[in-house]
Amino acid sequence: MSYTKILDRSNVLVAGGAGFIGSHLCDALLEKNNVICIDNFITGQEENIDLLMQNQNFKFIKHDLIEPIDLEALPELEVFKVKYQGLQQIYNLACPTSPKEYHHLPIETLLTNSQGTRNLLDLAVKYKARFLHASSASIYGEPIANQKFKEADWGSIDPVGPRSCYNEGKRFAESLVVNYGNYRSVDFRIARIFNTFGPRMKLQDGRMIPDFIAHALTNQPLTIYGSPEEISTYCYVSDMVDGLLKLMDHSGAGVFNLGSPEAYKMKDIAQMIIDLTGAKVSFEEAEALPYLAKQGVPDITLAKEQLGWFPLTKLEDGLRATINYGNAHEYVLGPKLSA
Ligand code: NAD
What is the value of pTM for the model shown? Predict the structure, then answer.
């Protein structure tokens, strides 16, 4: 059966579309496309797609991607004529992500990266859809000194450590995508995403910026796990979405680092959040947590040269928007201590 585009809008599937980055990506894609969002809410939030549910060009399917899915059997997708038009693009962002969840969801993480990615790649084969896979900086492992990671770097990972389900899952998924490219003709792109932040990140889930913001907004000291001198980089979510869209539209297959090349010390981020919130708190040091890895800095030369992409949002502006989101979601912050 061959599928031909018959509607004005392309059919685009976003796996993990109820998550933090995925929901912002759905927002952007809806300007020109029909969007099929698949998510099982394992780490995503219904609230992220509440407004989108009212858009007639958006359809949500609650499904665990570890199981195969037959889109043509779903009555809610009849309006997108999937039976005849198929899919034009697939974005795979599905993966349990919160560092704290590694302990709770290790098997789900491995299976989503393996079986889940395979099920989506089979849809890409069936519909001849272009496939963008959201990988991660974590495939590189920890940086040596101030090394910047290039796409050609092979990385070095502990296959049995506390983060192995995520790191090895992501590495396996990349290999699966590349081999579906080589042997099943899938037109693929891989985005190696570095730390991204912004509104809709779950507060208090073990990632540094939302944890700092949640603490500052509830007048609790900000805890820096490991050395306050440790560096990391932070890309604002609208820039990341722009990078993913540009990568999907790029003419050639390939692997690209997407992230901010500007590195900041943990203590400087903590202080910036304290200043921006006006919290009467300071930061304190604690022993590094076993599941938190040292962060690397991306070399984004390839993305700059081939996609014309680089992050535009100033860290301070992104933090301000994320703090506003935290303020509007006070109910998830926990008890507020008096200043
Ligand atoms: P997120 O947890 O908010 O989004 C992931 C979404 O995938 C969630 O909504 C979750 O419910 C869904 N999901 C997970 N397993 C699923 C399954 N089996 N079936 C259906 N849905 C499933 O995370 P995010 O921060 O938006 O990350 C999106 C992608 O980008 C992930 O693949 C993540 O690994 C990658 N990434 C993110 C960052 C970052 O800093 N946010 C950094 C590197 C890589």
Answer: 0.96
